[in-house]
Structures are given as C-alpha cells and as structure tokens.
Amino acid sequence: RSMTSHRWTYKEKDYIYYRCYSHQMNKQCPYNKSIREDKVEEFLLKRLGVLIEDYNVEVKQKQQARPNPAAIKSRMDKLTDLYLSDTISKEDYLARYEPLKNALKDAENAPKPVPAEVVNDFTASYESFSRAARKAFWSRLLVRIIPTEDGFLPVFDRNDNKQLLFSLIVKMGI
Q1: Distances in Å between the alpha carbon of 93 and those of 74, 97, 129?
Q2: How many Cβ atoms are within 10 Å of 137's Cβ, its own excluded?
Q3: Is the Cβ–Cβ distance between 80 and 92 less than 8 Å?
Q4: Distance, CA of 82 to CA of 84 (rounded, Å)
C-alpha cells in the first residue's frame, strides 16, 4: 500500500493523517482507515525502546562470552616478558602474540550497550525535532510501515543493522 499524508487543522492545531492512496483514488484497496502521524510515531518510539533493550541484552551476553581486554593485555605482557628473557624463540613469540593481538582488537572494538541516559536524552530531544528532522530520522531507519488491523508493522533496514540505528540515535539526539 502506498500511504499519502493529509493535514487537518482543528482548534488551531495541525494533525497529519495517512491513508491509502489506492483506496482514496479508485477504491482498489480494502484498507479504508486513516492513521494519525503522532500515533505512528508513538508506536515507533515504543518499538525502538524494545529494540534497544533486546540489543543491550544481546551485547551483554556476547560480552560475557568474550575475554576481558585486561586479561588479554596481561597475557600479552607475560608473553613479552618470556620473549625478552630468552625463554621462548621469536617464532614462538610471534605465533602466540598475533592471536592475542587480534583477540584484543576484537574485544576493544566490540559493540557496547546503549546507556539508558542516552535513550532518555534522545527521547526528550526527539520531541524538539522539526517534522522534517523526524521524517529524516525515520526514513534512514525504516523501509516502510505496514498498517495492520491491530497496529503497525515497521519494516526496519533490510540488513537489520542495529548498530546504525543506535549510532543515529546518538548523532541526532545528543
């Protein structure tokens, strides 16, 4: 369905509604309801909160399984001490050091949870966005929004790139 927006002014307040273009023009679509823009935004912000919570749980689970960067650095230091004291050969040192170096790089570059204060700050600042800024924000994240009988079905980025989502929150909100 292709939805078009329509502005309606009531008591000096503008309301934006979306409705199905096919139904409006030639009645080919059975979806004859209008959806208020503020209700869609409210739903999307709640859904965004759920996605952030899910993301944080996923990141924390991965962090528990991943070795601690401090422990890796400690092992690297011990290995360097062994090499400097001529206990191990240079080849053995390099063979052991490279995997540790890569593990440290992975551990330091691992995604981090989105702090609650960032989400709260974003939600507060989202309210001050202009309509164009809100549209730009959602356009970067959503492929489309499909209205259903009991709500909406947001279709996020085809790659489900959660890191992009949260970096946008940080860039635009704070």
Answers
A1: 15, 6, 55
A2: 19
A3: no
A4: 6
The vertex-29 CA angle with 25 and 31, nearest 5°, equals: 105
Residue 2: name the closest of 17, 23, 16 by CA.
23
Query: How far is residue 125 from each of residues 56, 64, 87, 116, 133, measured CA to CA in Å?
Result: 21, 32, 59, 14, 11
What is the per-residue pLDDT for 174? 34
At 101 the pLDDT is 92
User: Hey, what amino acid is at 135?
Assistant: K
In order along the chain (174 residues), what is the average pLDDT of each group of 10 residues? 69 78 67 76 81 82 81 91 90 92 85 76 83 83 67 55 51 40
